[in-house]
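Tokens for chain A. Residues wanted.
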């Protein structure tokens, strides 16, 4: 291993050490807003609430038992869409579904339910990261349980982005050491890319995301040049008001309806290094990086989970995370 490799490994070790001495609670800002939805709410209504609050996910609360009931995410809406596709004559029923029916929907369409993991806010942040990687969760709820009464409190939810940003902001001297090009590290996915064109239907792209178990599909032109990215969260405005028939619209139309404050798309080259990616994460709300060549042709994709996995597990004995 050359000096670059040594420095890179040192940087990774320092960041891992940092994650072990900080807690999930440390990631939270001093004050924040938390929208929790009642599990009895109609799914249709939950869509409007997310859109009105400018959020794409919310913890669910079972008010009959006073317990945390899981995390609502865009995957749940994608499941409802799949249900509608499999049982198209049940639109009336779909309209009446409540958030507590989401588990029944999973069963009906035969998807394996996502494990509902959570962590205690005062546990090391490293633990939250490991748990996210193991379950492939993109966000993890922080749940506090009272020792005496056993009562649960939903404290907040932390995302992969928030964790990576926390690392970026507090470890500039360590991320600086990560100077190996991402292409050389093989960071991300560069083969069998799932892509769409502006004329693909939203429904086709949803099926693609389900099939590949991914949260975003790059939109390219006939020369494979990157035009945009359709994300799982872009599904939410598409079905606002229960408009499932509008899923036959094109990706181009759906993307033109994006909110004004859309964070944008971030690209990088295969020669870019993790230190500059951490600079980007420090400054902007990145959800993933699309790897392009000098002619903006699509080469690959680096998801936040790819980065988190590398930072936590590269060079460790059990970097398989399948344990
Ligand atoms: P995240 O879990 O961070 O949301 P994704 O679910 O999008 O990330 O990605 C999961 C894995 O699939 C990652 O290893 C990523 O590199 C890969 N991946 C993401 N999008 C695509 C795509 N459109 N085509 C092929 N592979 C992808």
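Reply:
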């Amino acid at each position: 291993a050359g000096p670059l490799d040594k420095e890179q490994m040192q940087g990774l070790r320092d960041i891992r050490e940092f994650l072990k001495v900080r807690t999930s609670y440390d990631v939270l800002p001093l004050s924040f807003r938390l929208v929790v939805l009642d599990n009895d709410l109609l799914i249709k209504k939950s869509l409007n609430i997310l859109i009105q609050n400018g959020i794409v996910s919310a913890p669910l609360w079972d008010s009959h038992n006073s317990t945390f009931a899981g995390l609502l995410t865009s995957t749940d809406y994608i499941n409802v869409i799949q249900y509608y596709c499999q049982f198209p004559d049940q639109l009336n029923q779909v309209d009446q579904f409540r958030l507590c029916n989401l588990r029944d929907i999973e069963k009906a369409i035969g998807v394996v339910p996502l494990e509902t993991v959570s962590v205690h806010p005062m546990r090391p942040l490293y633990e939250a990261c490991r748990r996210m990687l193991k379950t492939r969760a993109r966000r993890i709820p922080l749940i506090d349980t009272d020792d005496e009464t056993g009562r649960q409190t939903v404290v907040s939810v932390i995302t992969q982005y928030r964790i990576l940003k926390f690392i970026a902001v507090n470890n500039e001297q360590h991320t600086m050491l990560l100077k190996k090009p991402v292409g050389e590290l093989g960071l991300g996915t560069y083969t069998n890319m799932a892509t769409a064109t502006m004329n693909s239907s939203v429904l086709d792209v949803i099926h693609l995301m389900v099939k590949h178990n991914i949260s975003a599909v790059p939109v390219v032109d006939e020369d494979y040049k990157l035009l945009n990215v359709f994300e799982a969260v872009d599904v939410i405005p598409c079905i606002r008001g229960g408009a499932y028939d509008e899923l036959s619209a094109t990706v181009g139309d759906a993307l033109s309806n994006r909110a004004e404050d859309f964070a944008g798309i971030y690209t990088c080259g295969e020669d870019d290094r993790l230190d500059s990616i951490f600079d980007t994460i420090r400054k902007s709300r990145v959800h993933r990086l699309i790897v392009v060549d000098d002619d903006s042709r699509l080469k690959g994709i680096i998801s936040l989970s790819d980065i988190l996995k590398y930072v936590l597990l590269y060079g460790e004995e059990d970097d398989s995370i399948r344990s």
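Residues 3-21 form the longest helix (19 residues). The chain has a mean pLDDT of 93.
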